[in-house]
Amino acid sequence: MAIVFRNGNVIIGNGKVIEKGTVSVDGENIFFVGPARRVQTSKKDRVFDISGKTLLPGLIDAHVHLCVDGSADPITSLLKDSIPVLTLKAANHARRTLEAGVTTVRDMGGRDYVDLAIRDGIESGILQGPRMLCSGKLVCMTGGHGWQFGREANGMDEVRAAVREQLRAGADLIKLMATGGVMTKGVEPGTTQFTLEELIAGVEEARKAGRRTATHAQGTEGIKNALWAGINSIEHGFFLDDEAIELILETKAFVVPTLCAPYYIIKAGVRRGVPAFAVEKSKAVMKSHWESVKKARKAGVPVAMGTDAGTPFNCHGENLKEMELLVRVGFTPMEAIVATTKTASEVLGLEKKIGTLEKGKLADLVIIDGNPLENIGILQYKEKIMAIMKEGRFYKCGL
Predict the structure, then answer these.
(1) How big, in percent rounded to 5, are the helix, strand and coil portions of the chain?
(2) How far apart are CA 260 and CA 318, in angstroms?
(3) Cβ distance 139 to 147 under 8 Å?
(4) Dihedrals phi, psi of 358, to nearest 5 degrees
(5) What is the model's pTM?
(6) Pairing between strand 53-57 and 46-49?
């Protein structure tokens, strides 16, 4: 028995649209994508007429922290909570993320491997949530950005050991901290942290195990160090200059901007309890951040959608606000969708399985009442999400 969606606006994920298209699902895979007239159905099939609606690939957030709760001071909460409480929170965050139409995430740093447990719980069917790729503990220098819940390491040998620990724990990728950041008191976003040699050691160790690498990199020198080291993706990229952009293109790396993170820190401000140091640093970097993303887009850098969900008032389940911010910095709605589907799948190394609607790929689908190409903000309204499917299974069906 197949599940067939007919007469909808089908956004493939690669920039193409099929008007009044049909998508057929057989088991956990997509069986057919194309014009309605080319597919036949039987009496056993479940057929849904989705006229006036839009069908997209399952959406992907390439940068989340499910262990971090999106409160005014989330790092304090993260460190204060017991592991059982933290695990319950993370499981709830995962469920809320899936309910937003996000069927895959890349978790970029948790505490004490709770993220890996949530991933495994989702894979086994114990929990409901998106498909997860996890980095385990972020690897940073002593006292560096994220030290409170990361794995501190100094020198090439210690970095290698730290990476090996994450691999042993079951991490899907490795996250290295090239620069300072906003949410750690006493460090500056623009300053370098790991040296080029330390980054090379970390990347080499991950590559030996067939794992991809990502770096928290906000300052220009740290961004370039990471690219020279062979990193796969630059997270945040606040201060991109022309040389950094040329290196990104040359090395075929990706940028995951996380526009939401500083934006919602500033929007909430000290009046809602965000630490003053985080607000001040966000104000100092936001203009350059947005200009860097504009510059990257203009140069043809592959940009993937990532939110940094979990940072102050950047809540799990509200991930698709990032798409609206991408449009505000100059992306077309279609470009924002491609960043959240095809390009994001490439960052994760899952482009052969998800990211676009193609025969043989996993049936991760979202159906929206309306057209996000006309109004990208429509994706943020849960009542407009008519159906969510992951691997051929409905997690919501209001058709």
Answers:
(1) 40, 25, 40
(2) 10
(3) no
(4) -145, 150
(5) 0.96
(6) unpaired
CATH superfamily entry for domain 59-348: Metal-dependent hydrolases (3.20.20.140)
First CA to last CA distance, the chain: 18
Are 24 and 30 within 8 A, CB to CB?
yes
Q: Could you read off the pLDDT of 333-353 as tens digits, one per residue?
A: 999 999 999 999 999 999 999
Q: How far apart are CA 161 and CA 157, in angstroms?
A: 6
Going through the chain in order, the beta strands assigned E by DSSP cover: 3-11, 17-26, 29-35, 46-49, 53-57, 59-64, 102-107, 131-134, 139-140, 151-152, 173-177, 212-217, 233-236, 254-256, 365-369, 385-390, 393-397
User: Amino acid letter at 239?
Assistant: F
**Where along the chain do its domains lie?**
3-58+356-397, 59-348
User: What would the two tokens of residue 308 be?
Assistant: 């940094």
- Evaluate whether 339 touches 305 at the Cβ level (below 8 Å): yes
What does the angle CA 354 – CA 170 – CA 355 come to, to the nearest 5 degrees? 10
Scored b (16 or more CB within 10 A) or e, 28-57 reads eebbbbeebeebeeeeebeebebeebbbbb
Question: What 3-state DSSP class applies to 346?
Answer: helix
- For 184-222, the DSSP string reads STT--TTSB-S-HHHHHHHHHHHHHTT-EEEEEE-SHHH
Residues 6+ apart with CB under 8 A from 258: 63, 235, 236, 306, 307, 308, 322
Both tokens of residue 40?
Answer: 């036949």
CATH number of 3-58+356-397: 3.40.1190.20, 1.10.490.10, 2.30.40.10, 3.40.605.10? 2.30.40.10
Note the pLDDT tens digit of each residue in 198-255: 999 999 999 999 999 999 999 999 999 999 999 999 999 999 999 999 999 999 999 9
